């Protein structure tokens, strides 16, 4: 009886922390910019560049969906691109409007019923996807910091970026190369009960984790892994296109490497707890990144608003339409 209220209280604490971080970030930005200057910068923004950026973003999301179909198909399920599009886009839209990345939970545990894949395969694909994206973003951050010579970056920040990228790569490599050993270990722990004895809760957890590592091992086969890494690079090239064209729209003399750096900083900020839609941390991170490459506070403030809307609004609208077009996504789970 006491577990439910405790769980509810923990959720409220998480919401309060996220809301508090959002409020702090918004206050910090308001102290750094003048509203009239931001409005003026928005008025002079060259909006045709934003259209090019949204097209680039759309291409990146198409690659994301294809990458997910590749991962799911590697587990033995024949999952086509069209079968993955609505669940993927719907989960993104839910992430945009719900707290605590609940869209990811829905994609892993609810949508698989209508897709004909197991929850284990869907969950593993989500974990692999997040790990590869994190390592790719850390590599983009390190590359941008080390390659851009026109801005002064503290040596400690350069070293931190390189170390994080290295540690992320090592963690991913360990997960891929030793996933089979981990699967056998956890399966042996989960299957050690006597004949006729009901598995304990801990043994059930071990068995579940073992199943995840089994799917992880399948997805880490050299051919599949190589394709996923190539697709992941294309994903972030497409997304960085939005950041690049938005910089051009503000009249900044920006290079693709600068856009890569800004994208890495802004996207990594979404790991921090915040309100739905990553309001606050994303804006402060984008603002900081643009000022780092030479933009004014007015340009940085307007840039944060424009890029956030360009990321949030199209994906939310398209995702909502995707869910509406496939009501079976939720009906199959309810059955």
TrEMBL record:
<protein>
    <submittedName>
        <fullName>Flippase-like domain-containing protein</fullName>
    </submittedName>
</protein>
<feature type="transmembrane region" description="Helical">
    <location>
        <begin position="12"/>
        <end position="33"/>
    </location>
</feature>
<feature type="transmembrane region" description="Helical">
    <location>
        <begin position="303"/>
        <end position="325"/>
    </location>
</feature>
<dbReference type="Pfam" id="PF03706">
    <property type="entry name" value="LPG_synthase_TM"/>
</dbReference>
<keyword id="KW-0812">Transmembrane</keyword>
<keyword id="KW-0472">Membrane</keyword>
<feature type="transmembrane region" description="Helical">
    <location>
        <begin position="224"/>
        <end position="248"/>
    </location>
</feature>
<feature type="transmembrane region" description="Helical">
    <location>
        <begin position="45"/>
        <end position="63"/>
    </location>
</feature>
<feature type="transmembrane region" description="Helical">
    <location>
        <begin position="163"/>
        <end position="186"/>
    </location>
</feature>
<dbReference type="InterPro" id="IPR022791">
    <property type="entry name" value="L-PG_synthase/AglD"/>
</dbReference>
<dbReference type="GO" id="GO:0005886">
    <property type="term" value="C:plasma membrane"/>
</dbReference>
<feature type="transmembrane region" description="Helical">
    <location>
        <begin position="254"/>
        <end position="271"/>
    </location>
</feature>
<feature type="transmembrane region" description="Helical">
    <location>
        <begin position="131"/>
        <end position="151"/>
    </location>
</feature>
<keyword id="KW-1003">Cell membrane</keyword>
<keyword id="KW-1133">Transmembrane helix</keyword>
């Amino acid at each position: 009886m006491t577990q439910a209220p405790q769980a509810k209280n923990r959720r409220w604490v998480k919401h309060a922390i996220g809301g508090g971080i959002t409020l702090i970030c918004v206050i910090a930005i308001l102290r750094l910019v003048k509203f009239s200057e931001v409005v003026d910068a928005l008025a002079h923004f060259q909006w045709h560049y934003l259209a090019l950026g949204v097209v680039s973003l759309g291409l990146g999301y198409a690659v994301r969906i294809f990458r997910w179909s590749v991962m799911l198909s590697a587990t033995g399920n024949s999952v086509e691109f069209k079968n993955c599009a609505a669940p993927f886009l719907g989960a993104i839209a839910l992430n945009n409007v719900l707290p605590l990345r609940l869209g990811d939970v829905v994609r892993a545990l609810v949508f698989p019923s209508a897709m004909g894949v197991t929850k284990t395969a869907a969950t593993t694909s989500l974990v692999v996807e997040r790990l590869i994206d994190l390592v790719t973003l850390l590599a983009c951050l390190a590359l941008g910091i080390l390659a851009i010579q026109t801005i002064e970056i503290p040596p400690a920040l350069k070293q931190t970026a390189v170390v994080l990228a290295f540690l992320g790569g090592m963690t991913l490599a360990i997960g891929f190369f030793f996933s089979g050993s981990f699967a056998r270990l956890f399966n042996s722990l989960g299957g050690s009960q006597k004949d006729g004895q009901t598995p304990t809760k801990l043994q059930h957890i071990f068995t579940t984790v073992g199943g995840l590592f089994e799917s992880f091992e399948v997805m880490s086969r050299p051919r599949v892994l190589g394709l996923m890494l190539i697709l992941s690079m294309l994903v972030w090239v497409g997304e960085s296109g939005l950041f690049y064209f938005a910089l051009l729209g503000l009249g900044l003399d920006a290079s693709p490497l600068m856009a890569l750096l800004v994208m890495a900083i802004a996207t990594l900020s979404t790991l921090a707890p915040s309100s739905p839609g990553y309001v606050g941390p994303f804006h402060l991170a984008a603002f900081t990144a643009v000022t780092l490459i030479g933009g004014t506070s007015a340009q940085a403030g307007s840039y944060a608003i424009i890029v956030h809307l360009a990321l949030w609004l199209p994906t939310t609208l398209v995702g909502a339409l995707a869910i509406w077009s496939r009501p079976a996504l939720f009906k199959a789970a309810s059955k």
